[in-house]
Amino acid sequence: MAKKIAVLTSGGDAPGMNACIRACIRSGLAEGKDMYVVYDGFRGLVEGDIAQVNKDFTQDIINRGGTIIRSARLPEFKEDEVVEKAAQQLADFEIDALIGIGGDGTFKGLGALAKHGVEVVGIPGTIDNDVGSTDETIGFATALNTICECVDKLKDTSGSHQRCSLIEVMGRHCGDLAMFAALAEGAEGVICVEHPLHEDVLFRKLRKMKAQNKSHAIIIVSENLLDINELAKKIEANTGFDTRTEVLGRLQRGGSPVAHDRILAARMADKAVTLITKNEVGNGKIVGVKSSEIVAYDIEEALKMKHEHAHGLRDLIDKLQ
Ligand code: F6P
User: Fold this and answer.
1) CA 14 to CA 177: how far, in whole Å?
2) Is the pLDDT at 54 greater than 80, yes or no?
3) Is pTM beyond 0.90 here?
């Protein structure tokens, strides 16, 4: 009997999730496996919202943003009886292995399922790039591009009005989107965990720019750190720069994935399917990319790995400002 593999997406959606679903299904079918999808993440798994799919299901989705099997957050998935119910659904459908695409929250859920005897593999898909066991997550490159497109536009109007723009980007508690965007945009400032705000330094710099009659100032701010409207008021009071705020929000999660994310999705998906077909999953694996190589770690080990990518950019960003 062919091995049955199911795929789900969980947590915040990310561009490239559809490309990853496509690659998992096609890679599995090419290996002679029966492929299934779970709708609505772990919630759908608990409810048994599971369907067998064929190649047609994956037609024309490689370039689509979002996730066609939808995503959800299910805090209750920490409870043992909820996990047990999910494991039972997989057993009822006679599914042998589950691939979960998402971030650390998703991997914790997979880890809990592994303890109930389910064969699980995680693939990192989140715009935040906050997963320690990989250099890059699916969706990060696209979200970064989206931020840069927005900042380019804001620079135009900021320059016309000689304004300071405070632009809040996502990342949850990780500064990668902010730091990489600041570097890519040559921003005058960046505020995030890896590059904390020093008001005096920022105000001094903006005052100097104002005195030099610079046309605009772009400051990228990571979410969940401070109230950008309050900071805008302080900047106006301390520097004389007319200041506006923009929260890019979930715009950053949408849109067609860039080629880089589609390729990353294909490589990671194929690795996940290969681990399953070669019976190398053990107590659960998380796939990642390290120094351009596709790798896999045991879940417990992966969840302990620390993410420190953006720290290394700090000096370069400051040097080029
Ligand atoms: O994890 C992705 C992400 O977009 C974070 O950057 C953000 O903090 C969070 O999800 C927002 O989640 P939601 O859309 O559920 O409010």
Assistant:
1) 13
2) yes
3) yes
